[in-house]
Design a protein that fits this description.
Elements: H1 7-21, H2 26-50
Length: about 80
């Protein structure tokens, strides 16, 4: 959808925004949008942090060897 935007489209879009909101209101508008996005991002991060992590299966205990013992050798298949 946005792939077809050319430089002229962007110029016209900016001109329409300046006419609608005025040059003095645009920085306030951009600041408000940025603040809203920061709040939204922090809330999404909090939601993902609140979810419990899925339970992981227990790994089998590694085989231990004692001093002087030789580990079991299996024949190659």
């Amino acid at each position: 959808m946005l792939r077809n935007l050319s430089a002229w489209h962007i110029v016209i879009l900016v001109a329409v925004l300046v006419l609608l909101f005025g040059a003095n209101k645009l920085p306030e508008l951009a600041r408000g949008v940025g603040q809203s996005l920061r709040i939204f991002k922090s809330e999404v991060k909090d939601l993902t942090a609140d979810e419990p992590a899925p339970a992981q299966p227990a790994a089998p205990a590694p085989a231990t060897t004692t001093l002087g013992s030789v580990p079991e050798q299996r024949p190659a298949a």
